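We treat protein structure as text, and this decision shapes the records that our systems exchange. Such a record has a labelled line for the sequence and another for the backbone structure tokens. The record that follows is passed on verbatim for readers who wish to inspect the format:
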Amino acid sequence: MPTLSEVPRIVAGRYEIGQAVGAGSSGTVFVAVDLETGERCAIKIREARNGERPVRFIAEARDMQRLRHPRLVPVLDYGEDEERYWYTMPLYARGCLRDRVKRGGPLGPDKALDWIFQVLEGLHAVHEAGLVHRDVKPHNVLVSDDDHALLADFGLARHVHGGVDYRTRTDQSMGTPNYRAPEQATDAASVDARADIYGVGATLYFLVTAKRPGFLCMVDRDDPVMATVPEPLRDFILKCMALDPANRYPNARSCAVDVAALADHYASDAPVGAAWMKRLDAMSKQGWLDRIWSWMRG
């Protein structure tokens, strides 16, 4: 990560930069203070030297701002400051799902399914908007103070219908090896929603085992780690992580239906699946209304 001496103390005349908390190919995330409001936030900064225009970073900021969904991390503000592009987000002090498992060990099926369903609520909105996230993993699911999961980091998102100033090469590999779908490792340009479903299965694998899936995407019934997972949950993970995309769930909503059913199977109290599905559909409808209103306002 960059040291504090390598970034300005104040960005855009407004955001006072603090500690670096994450870094990736698309930029570095810092804790910051909004000097206008006094509130802490997170700011992602991308260096752009020699007149470079980081079109992926710009598209990421715009995608996250326009999607407007309770299960997606929102962009609060974005812009350009000399040779730096940036956007701000709420600061989620509880970290990500990876942090939660690293601190407390594997989750029980009920809690793991609750968070996975919330991830699918966000992914449903992503897929409905014509995007493929292409980097679904525990590191990119943040936890809010009220214990909700929010999908973050659209730096690798594919725009299925175009409309952006860049294209992924047909032979390009993208994503995190332990969590990306096999087809994404060889042809990231043509993957569809089923690649994200693979990431969902790999994330659930991690949540209930505290182990990363195999580097070469070889997760099957002979996997010794999978032997510790209860059978209904194991079957679901294996379907999500099928090597052939045709054998996975076709999209986030169809996957969510089975997660809701599994949640009822493991529920210690009253069933929750029907209420979850009703919430998913209500969020989807409201999300479309919010986006239409945003577009109308320009």
In short: The chain is about 35% helix and 15% strand.
